């Protein structure tokens, strides 16, 4: 496939056209070498009425260019464009705009249900008497299969081959479906299994920083923008590509040509100064940034990094910081184009013409940062001197809970006695071995995740720690499950070229797969003797991973305390084997000379790391690995593709089923029904994550999902994970609110997905919801602050809807999940004036009524009535968190897909 095809696949099939009215005479031409490009000039627009826009943050300049290019007088008006300039007055706005990203990125966990929905929409279109071919992505879509590989095999040279083979065994039905989608839909490409993580593939190959397409005989140049069905889509912000995670539902609408409705955001500037000390990693830096921005509060806001400190960060360092925007809660974490951007594009094998275009376009638009550039104007500014960053990890349950490395031992002891309520120190004998394990022992050490495996510096550092440890005679503790899962095959190339892969292999950090693995809960089972020992004494076992997520119940069912760390610290903790060791002052182990070996003895210098990176990371590696990236291995090529323009659903499949969203769909909108006599499904506390609502990991035979599969003769060893079965709504409904660590206050003292059913008895969430459905009773969910944090998991909203939940009432929402609820026709309501379900003394046996839903407007007040069993009534006022008129239309239609489908059919 040629580079031109990669950038603009099937562009002739696109129906989204640039129909600019050009109110500000922005349409101009740009000469780069011997090529002429059409572009929409911010400089000219400023001269022609948009005064001051050169002072806008770079991220908002990208948004403004988008509005200029798509001005049509209907979805984008002159007033929308003027609102961008007016933003400078208050550095915020309540103005709603329609934004059109250039492309969509998916991973397979969220991508499979998106393609399932497209297939279901084709069926529904046919049922309504229209042409199924109307349902096609209208913008380029790339799906990267990276979420399905599990660490079943580890610590051997054959682990990668064995894990990939197992992946194909488990996911054959899903992969057959995706191969059909690749053939059936225009503008849709699939990066096959065993290639890399979507965000790293995006950073290293798919992203172009400045995008181009042929239109009406012109080559139009414009900023590369995207939305993705994974929250860490923001990683590419490090390459000056504006993008963020959305729910699969919202991404599907974008694929189908619908603009994304959004309010002009506040933009928080984050000024970086100085330079990091020797030995400090990008991981240490990003954990500090996460802590600071979480404390500031940036949910729903853009964050943009600026200042002289950027001159001392590599592009990969910037991508590491941008990656964790979901962890600090922002919509994005943007870095402007600068010389480092150009250097990275060259290093990763982008063509010279592309690099030249990026430079000239960015400079022509006032989007190119230099050391002496004037600072943009921001809503607020935070400051960090890079010299003040200390070595750190984060945990044991949240990415924002940063722990200075020197305090890690002490902080774990406090957590053990506090939140884990453990005061003893049992010794659990591991059967068949000569050792025991106890609280705080590290049973998983995983180099994993797009956050860090995209950064050669920290991976080379991990390899050097391994090399030095081996030279001194150290070994990984025998109870530690070790793994290395890079985000692209290029990582293997430079680790092999440097000889560091051999060192990592000797410590047990063998290649296990190219995918997210441990970071998303695909850590695979612990060895049975270890698992049995953990369970026998209810140990607080630990994992250390170079990931971005450490929510409880996510990494492994046997592991309660999870810590995020840089790759070299992952190796160090594997050597120590315990969180109860202060690795800054106590030995990692005893060397072959009988002397203690300390962290400082194995820690590489910045110069050592830089030398190896410079010698071994080459453009030829990237060009070679990405030259035929969509071809796949023999396993992918041998998958048989069946079906035509509509999918031949297999009723016996336990992976892919036709979802019920469009059953009984009519061409006309039905009036919204009020909620009368709803029962409460759950009363949740703060920080309920999308992992809590819709877990991605494994599940057991005694769960509703496990029972469903057993009834269909699927053995527990073949259950796979919730994430891999997202194409089957029957599994995902049963998995909704089924996280093993979720706590529903209606059943105090009980962990897991349980509630009280109609008869007052404790029951699984799914079972209770189905019992209420039989009685014709709608449901309501109550929660606390930060409801829906974490991954942009569309099934957290889909499952909520399919269980019969009509409204979710909480103290505050995270951005993506609130949007997803609206997209599924679920009403998000927010308590006002400090109220909560606790202040109302709700117990869960009340009935809830919400009236007047046919008259609600964005962000209006809604009265909620509460009727208690003892006959007392109360009511409270909640804020309707349908935020925009476009969202209001989605809600009236019963969801965003219904809205799109009706429009296409009409």
Automatic annotation (TrEMBL):
<dbReference type="GO" id="GO:0003723">
    <property type="term" value="F:RNA binding"/>
</dbReference>
<feature type="domain" description="Aconitase/3-isopropylmalate dehydratase large subunit alpha/beta/alpha">
    <location>
        <begin position="93"/>
        <end position="577"/>
    </location>
</feature>
<keyword id="KW-0816">Tricarboxylic acid cycle</keyword>
<comment type="function">
    <text>Catalyzes the isomerization of citrate to isocitrate via cis-aconitate.</text>
</comment>
<dbReference type="GO" id="GO:0046872">
    <property type="term" value="F:metal ion binding"/>
</dbReference>
<dbReference type="InterPro" id="IPR044137">
    <property type="entry name" value="AcnA_IRP_Swivel"/>
</dbReference>
<dbReference type="Pfam" id="PF00330">
    <property type="entry name" value="Aconitase"/>
</dbReference>
<dbReference type="Pfam" id="PF00694">
    <property type="entry name" value="Aconitase_C"/>
</dbReference>
<protein>
    <recommendedName>
        <fullName>Aconitate hydratase</fullName>
        <ecNumber>4.2.1.3</ecNumber>
    </recommendedName>
</protein>
<dbReference type="InterPro" id="IPR015931">
    <property type="entry name" value="Acnase/IPM_dHydase_lsu_aba_1/3"/>
</dbReference>
<dbReference type="InterPro" id="IPR001030">
    <property type="entry name" value="Acoase/IPM_deHydtase_lsu_aba"/>
</dbReference>
<dbReference type="GO" id="GO:0006099">
    <property type="term" value="P:tricarboxylic acid cycle"/>
</dbReference>
<comment type="pathway">
    <text>Organic acid metabolism; propanoate degradation.</text>
</comment>
<dbReference type="GO" id="GO:0051539">
    <property type="term" value="F:4 iron, 4 sulfur cluster binding"/>
</dbReference>
<dbReference type="InterPro" id="IPR006249">
    <property type="entry name" value="Aconitase/IRP2"/>
</dbReference>
<keyword id="KW-0411">Iron-sulfur</keyword>
<dbReference type="GO" id="GO:0047456">
    <property type="term" value="F:2-methylisocitrate dehydratase activity"/>
</dbReference>
<keyword id="KW-0479">Metal-binding</keyword>
<comment type="subunit">
    <text>Monomer.</text>
</comment>
<keyword id="KW-0408">Iron</keyword>
<dbReference type="InterPro" id="IPR018136">
    <property type="entry name" value="Aconitase_4Fe-4S_BS"/>
</dbReference>
<dbReference type="InterPro" id="IPR000573">
    <property type="entry name" value="AconitaseA/IPMdHydase_ssu_swvl"/>
</dbReference>
<feature type="domain" description="Aconitase A/isopropylmalate dehydratase small subunit swivel">
    <location>
        <begin position="707"/>
        <end position="833"/>
    </location>
</feature>
<keyword id="KW-0694">RNA-binding</keyword>
<comment type="function">
    <text>Involved in the catabolism of short chain fatty acids (SCFA) via the tricarboxylic acid (TCA)(acetyl degradation route) and probably the 2-methylcitrate cycle I (propionate degradation route). Catalyzes the reversible isomerization of citrate to isocitrate via cis-aconitate. Could catalyze the hydration of 2-methyl-cis-aconitate to yield (2R,3S)-2-methylisocitrate. The apo form of AcnA functions as a RNA-binding regulatory protein.</text>
</comment>
<comment type="pathway">
    <text>Carbohydrate metabolism; tricarboxylic acid cycle; isocitrate from oxaloacetate: step 2/2.</text>
</comment>
<keyword id="KW-0456">Lyase</keyword>
<dbReference type="GO" id="GO:0003994">
    <property type="term" value="F:aconitate hydratase activity"/>
</dbReference>
<dbReference type="InterPro" id="IPR015928">
    <property type="entry name" value="Aconitase/3IPM_dehydase_swvl"/>
</dbReference>
<dbReference type="InterPro" id="IPR036008">
    <property type="entry name" value="Aconitase_4Fe-4S_dom"/>
</dbReference>
<comment type="similarity">
    <text>Belongs to the aconitase/IPM isomerase family.</text>
</comment>
<keyword id="KW-0004">4Fe-4S</keyword>
